[in-house]
Structure to design on (346 residues):
């Protein structure tokens, strides 16, 4: 991967990351992605529920490459008597990952307010000793405090804040000089950036595709129905771009691309798996093999569950701290891009 394309990828990632896009709240991120696709000159279609399918060209044995633009987040459940706000998660967002986090509230009328998620008793000096060691809980002790002078339910309602309004976490992006990328929502916005970069690369390099390629941008993966519809009828294979989980007892690495053999739903297609390994070896791409259980799944899985007769596979950069504050490295992104490009041309 040339440095110019890596720079383009990071620029795209920064822009994508700046757009809040919790599952279901997709209009703004979808508009941004379609604007980029229009600039590149690809044809595309939109799904009724939200989602984009772009045709990149080529003929024979159609491959659909997926990346999901939606993220985890929260929704307002109810306003409490003191003006604090109780929340419910959208997607599997653990409580420990949101405590003391700054957030944005988007109302039904698209007005934005800021605030912080804290425990009801958040001052340690006056918190009873038995409460200090309790586990954070959406139902018991975590609430949202608005950056507004509210003292009761009516004050909050007067702002136009209602049950069902969306609450987005600050991404807090950090790029280190030695190649680390730290933020929320690497899952899966970094792969959206990789896929857009691949589309940009095809145009700039005037590559002739050996097979038909679709780019499928999902908006509902985190709530498990993103890949359930919309794939073109001639799709024979789906390659999901999603993150590898770097953790104890796992093989994934922040410096390599992960090729996934199985996840919590079922094994990935053996023919596609072997081909990915062969391509990585033939092109000297640094990779690792891994299996993700007990709760990992992708849009490619959902396509099979929805009844699509396709082969399915998964690759992606290794990421530490999934569904929380995450980290990866430049080398992992480069290896993922290189394997995507080489596999699509194989």
């Amino acid at each position: 991967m040339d440095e110019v394309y890596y720079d383009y990828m990071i620029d795209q990632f920064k822009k994508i990351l700046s757009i809040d896009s919790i599952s279901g709240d997709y209009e703004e991120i979808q508009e941004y992605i379609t604007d980029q696709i229009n600039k590149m000159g690809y044809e595309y279609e939109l799904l009724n529920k939200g989602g984009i399918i772009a045709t990149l060209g080529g003929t024979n044995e159609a491959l659909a490459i997926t990346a999901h633009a939606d993220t985890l987040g929260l929704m307002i459940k109810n306003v409490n008597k003191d003006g604090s706000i109780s929340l419910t998660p959208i997607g599997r967002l653990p409580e420990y990952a949101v405590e003391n986090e700054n957030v944005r509230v988007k109302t039904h009328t698209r007005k934005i307010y800021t605030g912080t998620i804290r425990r009801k008793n958040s001052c340690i000096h006056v918190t009873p000793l038995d409460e200090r060691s309790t586990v954070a809980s959406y139902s018991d002790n975590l609430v949202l405090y608005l950056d507004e002078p509210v003292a009761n339910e009516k004050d909050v309602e007067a702002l136009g804040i209602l049950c069902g309004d969306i609450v987005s976490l600050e991404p807090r992006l950090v790029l280190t000089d030695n190649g680390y990328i730290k933020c929320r929502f690497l899952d899966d916005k970094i792969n959206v950036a990789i896929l857009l970069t691949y589309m940009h690369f095809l145009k700039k390099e005037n590559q002739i595709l050996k097979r038909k390629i679709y780019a499928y941008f999902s908006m509902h993966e985190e709530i498990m129905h993103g890949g359930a519809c919309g794939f073109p009828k001639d799709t024979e294979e789906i390659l999901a771009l999603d993150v590898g989980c770097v953790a104890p007892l796992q093989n994934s690495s922040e410096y390599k691309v992960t090729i996934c053999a199985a996840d919590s739903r079922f094994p990935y297609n053996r023919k596609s798996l072997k081909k990915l390994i062969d391509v990585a070896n033939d092109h000297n791409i640094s990779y690792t093999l891994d299996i993700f259980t007990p709760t990992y799944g992708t849009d490619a899985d959902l396509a099979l569950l929805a009844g699509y007769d396709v082969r399915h596979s998964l690759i992606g950069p290794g990421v530490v701290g999934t569904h929380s504050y995450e980290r990866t490295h430049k080398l992992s992104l480069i290896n993922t891009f290189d394997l995507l490009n080489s596999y699509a041309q194989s």
Notes: The chain has eight helices and 18 strands. The chain has a mean pLDDT of 97. Helices lie at 3-17, 27-40, 129-132, 153-158, 186-205, 270-282, 299-305, 330-344.
